[in-house]
Amino acid sequence: LALHRGKERSPGEYRLYRPSTVHLPAHEMIALERDLHRALNEDGLRLMLQPIVTADSQPNARVTLAGVEALVRIEHPERGVLSPDTFIPVAEASGLILPLGAWVMEQGLAWLADATRQGLDTQTIAFNVSAREIHAGGLVERLADGLERHDLAAQRIILEVTENVMLERDSVVRETFDALRALGCKLAIDDFGTGFSSLSYLQHLPFDIVKIDRCFVGEVHTAPRQAALVAAMIEMGHALGLSVTVEGIELHEQASRCLASGADHLQGYYFCRPLPAAEALARFITL
Ligand code: C2E
Ligand code: CA
Ligand code: CA
Ligand code: CA
């Protein structure tokens, strides 16, 4: 097993990122970073899980749970629940994404092991991985270690990366992907169609799954052009041997349209909102 060794990069070496924090005033970034520190140290992170489902395109077909996606929140003592859209960019810029990602992965693996012991028939768990985590190294080793401790098969793990990870033609990305594949994990392209990358990475990077972003889905049941675009993306995914998930399904009609166009998996509020990990098991058993 050729695991990627993370410590090869010299300590002074930096990579270019484009964290989307530039629009935040400095004092807000500092406050968020402080919140993040506190959440990490004082049990302030919450793991949420959202189901990813399958169904055939018959009307009223039974929906089955294919897997879950892990989504993190901060529970702030005064400000309530903070959304990852606010603090993930700060976590990436500050490097706190590394302990945060490690926390999410550990909690997610523990949940999956527990759910499996309790008889929940869920196949997979998907983790969001940011570019910074890949470039920092150690991701593959950490995952392999977690899988072993929780006695889970790597085939049940999906790692989701956005197209922006592919912006840099960097061998670290390729090596990490290869090592994850060698371990047995699956790789997903997240938010497909929204990044800055060209499609050229599809020729040589070993993806298994493409997740069509929810911005393509809002009017898929009423706007023929949007429907055509989604159908074409699904077809392209299949032509490349990928499984296709459509995100952001909020309505029955959106679900039927995407299924009729061949989507393999669906995810969205229509089926279930992200739930706290502690509640998820009971709910998913009856899904
Ligand atoms: P994402 O990976 O694209 O995750 C899907 C987002 O869409 C989640 O937002 C989910 O709650 C939301 N969503 C699901 N179904 C629907 C729907 O039907 N309608 C609408 N409008 N939204 C829906 P969330 O949980 O706020 O997460 C936002 C983003 O933060 C994620 O987008 C992901 O990029 C990032 N993120 C979340 N957790 C982690 C994490 O542990 N690590 C990293 N690196 N990023 C994370
Ligand atoms: Ca995701
Ligand atoms: Ca997404
Ligand atoms: Ca997103």
UniProtKB/TrEMBL annotation:
Signal peptide from the UniProt entry: none
Domain EAL stretches: 29-287
Protein name per the record: Diguanylate cyclase/phosphodiesterase
